[in-house]
Specification:
By secondary structure, the chain is mainly alpha-helical. The chain has six helices and two strands. It folds into two domains: 84 residues, Arc Repressor Mutant, subunit A (Orthogonal Bundle); 54 residues.
């Protein structure tokens, strides 16, 4: 949803966009979009103004925003997590499984972030325009 919202803002090329309009594109409630915008604002990916001229826009060009930044801004929970319940430490597998999986999961998350760093929001917009003939028009 975050990439979708940011893509709409990129399409609007600096024009401010309301949470209601963003919610219409995502097909969700504006309250959910506003919560998402707060996370994106904390990460300095968007700037939002209330009152006259209200709405949100990108804080920098789409070519300078990569998907790893977006991922870090909105992923509060680790994508790979060990179970909350402790394994049986008397078992040879149970004794070391948590430590082993933590290493595997950390490596996988690092690989994911490295891959996401290679794709910018501008790249996503380019892919949308290339694969969807109606996307050349402004979103909204």
């Amino acid at each position: 949803m975050a990439v979708h919202v940011l893509a709409v803002l990129a399409y609007k090329e600096g024009d401010r966009v309301t949470s209601a309009m963003l919610a219409g594109s995502v097909n969700t409630n504006p309250v959910i979009v506003r919560r998402l915008l707060l996370s994106l604002q904390r990460a300095r990916l968007v700037e939002t103004r209330k009152g006259a001229g209200s709405g949100s826009r990108l804080s920098r060009s789409p070519g300078r925003i990569n998907l790893a930044e977006v991922y870090r801004a909105v992923e509060a929970v680790e994508p790979f997590a060990s179970p909350a319940r402790k394994a049986n430490t008397a078992c040879p597998v149970g004794h070391c499984i948590r430590k082993t999986l933590n290493q595997v999961f950390a490596s996988a998350e690092n690989a994911l972030e490295r891959d996401l760093e290679k794709t910018t929001l501008a790249g996503v917009i380019g892919m949308i325009k290339a694969s969807c003939p109606g996307a050349a028009k402004k979103a909204g």
